[in-house]
Design a protein that fits this description.
Length: about 230
């Protein structure tokens, strides 16, 4: 399984004036696909931590990126799986590159046998921890009942109706807990990300390396608490 740290979270919890040592982070799109793309899939792109000196965060959905194959270029269909997590669908089989202008971002063979989609996540618990005050932060962590299935790339958190709220990337260093929302003291999150809270009932689904979604989990009630750190 490829190693990816959970997404570390565009909203600022503490402004530079509130904490002079806080350097605001930025997000940048990163292509996560690193192997064959199953039929019906595409290149998976996520917003991850970018350079601290970047002017602005950049969306994972880039309408000017193209798919290049056989000497021709075409605009891909963009499918948003969660805020900050996008699939660039590949419609034709064969070697295909995802291109930004003249820069090749990734190349993969599309049209690989689809195989089975991943099973629904099995969850022991979901917990949301929020700290208030100048050093404010918030994290939602999912404790799994069993390790991520082979080929799982990301875990998406949805509301009770199935609308995606946030996501986290599978981390090979810890296969028992996945952070699906992370808003650190100086951090940012993708636009349209929704912070969950204790008491809410939510669902989850896996995303495989071709950008295909698993069935959703059963409803799970979030536990957690708020820590008041003061000013």
């Amino acid at each position: 399984m490829v190693r990816f740290a959970a997404l570390v979270s565009v909203l600022v919890l503490a402004s530079p004036t509130a904490d002079a040592k806080c350097a605001m982070q930025h997000l940048a799109p990163k292509v996560l696909t690193d192997g064959p793309i199953a039929t019906g899939g595409g290149f998976v792109v996520a917003e991850v931590d970018g350079a601290d000196d970047a002017r602005d965060s950049v969306s994972a959905a880039q309408p000017t990126w193209t798919l290049a194959a056989g000497g021709t270029k075409a605009a891909p269909k963009l499918v948003t799986l969660a805020p900050g997590l996008v699939v660039y669908r590949v419609e034709k089989a064969g070697e295909t590159s995802l291109v930004d202008g003249t820069t090749v971002l990734a190349t993969a063979t599309a049209g690989a046998p689809a195989g089975r989609t991943l099973p629904a996540p099995k969850v022991n618990a979901i917990r949301h921890e929020k700290t208030l005050g100048r050093r404010a932060s918030a994290f939602t962590r999912v404790t799994l009942a069993e390790p991520p299935p082979d080929g799982a790339l990301a875990l998406v958190l949805t509301d009770a109706n199935g609308k995606a709220r946030s996501f986290g990337l599978v981390d090979e260093d810890d296969l028992s807990v996945i952070t699906v929302y992370a808003h650190s003291r100086c951090g940012v999150v993708p636009n349209n990300t929704v912070e969950s809270s204790a008491g809410q009932r939510v669902k989850l689904f896996w995303v495989d390396r071709s950008g295909r979604s698993s069935p959703t989990s059963k409803l799970v009630t979030i536990a957690g608490k708020i820590n008041d750190q003061g000013d």
